[in-house]
Specification:
This protein is mainly beta. Helices cover 7% and strands 51% of the residues. The protein starts with a helix and ends with a strand. The N terminus is likely disordered.
């Protein structure tokens, strides 16, 4: 059968399914369980759960037949759960947590968060010169994880979000050490014209009004070509108040106030963007799909509060804002050579952001604890001035990725996927620590009022050859083996430090007065360092799958993931090496009672070797070392039950015991290895890993019913997670305190008829005050202020949706 005929048959089958389901209520199987292959599914009239197709193993498969820990949230469920972005879908993935920005003086708000899976987390430092992420994020076929975190992409006209928990070291490679999140877009369809739009108005309790407009259109250009255009614009209201305060620096009695910056609800943001995709069937066997996507976010204020000042309040003394914009161009070529499927995926991502961050906490903390630091801060007349620092930062990212792979027919008894991968990502880093009215002689040469300058270029390169093969030993037993051979080559070069006449630079060697090679470096007066590290290795995978019958299977997996090593920019500290995560997992996927009930689960143990740990050392400069070892033991399960044609109940749960298995002493030996034998460890053996909960889960109930000629629905969701710690080290935990456990309820009610619907929703129904993340701006800054990035307060909204 030709490719064209196969596509026509598939479309015909889909049309018959859509016709059969037209007018029938859609019901959620909505609690996803980390590490289990449940999908938010639609429910047929007889009350069964629908089949869900995923591409987690680089080929289309029924999610219940994939012997790995994968979850999927489809288009309809994304709409039903009012999911628009990263923060929204993470709630319904029990294996996934995240850290917001802001730690170490970094920017806060959209686009500066780090994704974590299965408790694989060691530190809270999100520094630009720190380790790469442990979770990879993909948009269709391409990685979109930048060095400082994944793109915070608005979700609309999305086919599904897939979450692959556990090491994905063979098919996805670097920075998929703990797992992978995949965002799959809806593709252009030559079969017919389609369009839709959505309008939403909302209001945040304790905050202001927000809104959303988004739409798509799918236009056939010929029987073999189509274009799909998508656009969105969203305004999120602020809910944190920057309150008037007075701050005194005790050493010289300098007093400042923030009266001109005081503002209610000052952490609002606006996002707009679009996507254009073209699909052309070149012939019966080959299809080409170029895609262009762009987004811009402008965020005001600071997305965290200081509990010492009151609920949802902060006091900052310099403007805080961020602008994050990116453009992504991708090209996918799919075809057949004989019976083999060939895929080429290439992409170019360009991301630029600029941020302004108040850093007065750091200035006050040093004025109190290390007066010699603020003593030299004077104006041209030699008078001591306000020592408040203000970070003006720019990041310039570029990423090129290419993958070529071949896959045998999935019907073969021996089937395989194999390929080659190349990636180069570059991060241009600029950070100016500005003190207004600073004496000219104290500037970094050529940079007015700049007390400290970071001007660096970081380049991370990855190459790999990979393959997985599966052999059906019998009709019931299948064995899978895979391996990825990787190479990485990372370098970091540039300037960091004080000006030529700054006494602190003269004393420490940091900056122009140190060992700095003369010559312009991207505007910096000289080059402080140029370092490089490289390595290679292999990550294997083995899986045995046994089918009990057509609707039940069990599997056992050993897999390994890795994260590349990198550079320490400080002094003579050696590079840090790659770290590795070994996963031992036993899981099951089962359907019962004619696919009315799904029960999936997994037990796993993950051993994390030589994990990378980033921390702020002297002068609050980030240092990275391979810190030791950790172990995560876990259980994941999911239950989805289509009770009848109207009611669906679902529940998901992840239980973890994540802890270090060696002392963390905060010291390294002459070879850069971790010292784990010490009298007073900063974190003793058995300490819980940070930024991860021992329990996280959700329960969702959705009921559909006729009401006055309309299709009505009501939905209740409850999300819970247990307590967390923000840092691995005991002293920092004591300073920040524990993040308490919390539970949040969301409700929605809607009416619709054929192609349009109205939806009323309330998220965080009881306006639960809870901490999303805790941090402070520097090691000593807890004496001044600790911050809480809160979950969003109760939000009320109405959405109108229409499709053609």
């Amino acid at each position: 059968m030709t490719r064209s005929k196969r596509r026509k048959l598939e479309r015909s089958q889909k049309s018959r399914v859509r016709a059969a389901l037209r007018g029938i209520p859609l019901v959620s199987a909505s609690a996803l369980l980390a590490g289990t292959p449940v999908a938010f599914a639609q429910q047929a009239d007889e009350g069964t759960l629908a089949e869900v197709i995923v591409t987690a193993q680089k080929r289309e498969e029924n999610i219940q037949n994939v012997p790995i820990s994968v979850q999927a949230i489809g288009t309809e469920k994304l709409e039903q759960l009012n999911i628009q972005g990263f923060d929204d879908y993470v709630k319904f993935l029990p294996s996934v947590t995240f850290q917001a920005g802001g730690a170490g003086g970094g920017p806060s708000g959209p686009g500066f968060s780090r994704v974590l899976m299965r408790g694989v987390s060691s530190d809270s430092n999100l520094n630009h010169s720190g380790p790469l992420p442990t979770v990879g994020t993909y948009l269709d076929e391409q990685p979109i994880t930048t060095i400082q975190g994944a793109l915070d992409m608005h979700l609309y006209d999305i086919a599904r979000v897939e979450a692959l928990a556990g090491p994905q070291g063979t098919l996805y490679g670097a920075s998929s050490e703990a797992g992978t999140v995949r965002i799959i877009t809806n593709k252009p369809d030559p079969d017919g014209f389609k369009a839709g739009y959505e309008i939403q108005g909302n209001r945040i309790d304790h905050g202001g009004p927000g809104g959303l407009m988004q739409g798509f259109v799918n236009v056939p250009l010929s029987p073999s070509a189509a274009i799909r255009l998508v656009a969105w614009g969203e305004h999120k209201a602020g809910f944190i108040d920057n309150i008037p305060q007075i701050r005194t620096f005790p050493q010289f009695g300098v007093t400042i106030n923030n009266a001109t910056l005081a503002e209610k609800n000052f952490n609002d943001s606006t996002t707009y963007g679009g996507r254009a995709a073209l699909r052309v069937d070149l012939n019966d066997n080959w299809t080409i799909t170029p895609t262009l996507m762009a987004q811009k976010t402008r965020a005001q204020g600071f997305s965290a509060a200081n509990p010492a000042l009151g609920d949802l309040k902060v006091a900052h003394y310099s403007p805080d804002d961020a602008e994050d914009q990116w453009v992504d161009a991708a090209l996918t070529l799919e075809g057949k050579i004989s019976n083999f499927d060939l895929t080429y995926a290439g992409a170019f991502l360009k991301r630029d952001d600029s941020t302004r961050t108040d850093y007065s906490d750091y200035s006050l903390a040093y004025d109190i604890s290390i007066p010699s630091y603020t003593d030299p801060i004077v104006d041209n007349s030699g008078n001591h001035i306000n020592p408040t620092q203000w970070i003006l930062a720019k990041d310039r990212y570029q990423k090129i990725s290419q993958e070529l792979r071949i896959a045998s027919p999935k019907e073969w008894r021996l089937r395989f996927v194999a390929g080659l991968f190349y990636q180069r990502q570059q991060h241009g880093i600029e950070q100016r620590y500005v003190i207004q009215n600073l004496a000219d002689s104290l500037w970094v040469t050529g940079w007015p009022d700049t007390w400290w300058l970071t001007e660096q270029v970081r380049v991370d390169r990855d190459q790999a050859a990979f393959g997985e093969a599966t052999f059906d030993v019998t009709d019931s037993l299948s064995l899978t083996a895979g391996i990825r051979h990787f190479k990485f080559d990372n370098n970091l070069a540039g300037f960091r430090g004080f000006g030529l006449n700054n006494p602190l630079g003269i004393g420490s060697g940091l900056g122009e007065a140190g060992d700095c090679v003369a010559g312009d470096f991207h505007g910096a007066p000289c080059s402080s360092f140029s370092k490089r590290t490289s390595d290679s290795g292999n990550t294997p995978k083995f899986t045995a799958t046994y089918r009990l019958d057509e609707s039940k299977l069990v599997y056992a997996t050993y897999s390994k993931g890795f994260r590349p090593g990198g550079i320490n920019r400080v002094g003579d500290l050696p590079p840090y090496g790659a770290d590795f995560l070994k996963n031992y997992e036993i899981g099951w996927k089962t359907s019962w009672n004619g696919n009315r009930l799904r029960f999936n689960g997994a037990f796993f143990r993950e051993d994390w070797q030589d994990f990378q740990f980033a921390f702020l050392g002297a002068n609050s400069l980030t240092r990275i070392a391979n810190a030791g070892a950790a172990r995560i033991k876990g259980f994941e399960s999911e239950l989805a039950w289509a009770v009848n044609g109207s009611l669906t109940l679902s529940a998901g749960l992840t239980l973890l015991n994540p802890e270090i298995t060696e002392n963390y002493c905060g010291e390294i030996d002459a070879n850069g290895g971790a010292i784990t034998d010490c009298a007073d460890p900063q974190a003793p053996k058995g300490t819980q890993l940070p930024a991860t909960s021992k329990a996280k889960g959700n329960v969702v109930a959705r009921y559909t019913f006729p009401l006055g000629g309309f299709d009505g629905h009501a939905q209740l969701a409850y999300i819970y997670q247990s307590a967390q710690w923000a840092d691995l080290r005991i002293q920092q935990r004591t300073d920040l305190g524990q993040q308490p456990a919390y539970g949040v309820a969301d409700i929605s009610f809607g009416l619709g008829e054929k192609n349009y619907s109205w939806e009323f929703f309330i998220s965080n129904l009881f306006d639960k005050k809870a901490d999303g993340y805790r941090f402070t701006q520097c090691n000593s800054c807890s004496i001044v202020a600790n911050y809480v990035a809160p979950i969003q307060p109760a939000t009320f909204g109405i959405t109108y949706n229409q499709k053609f």
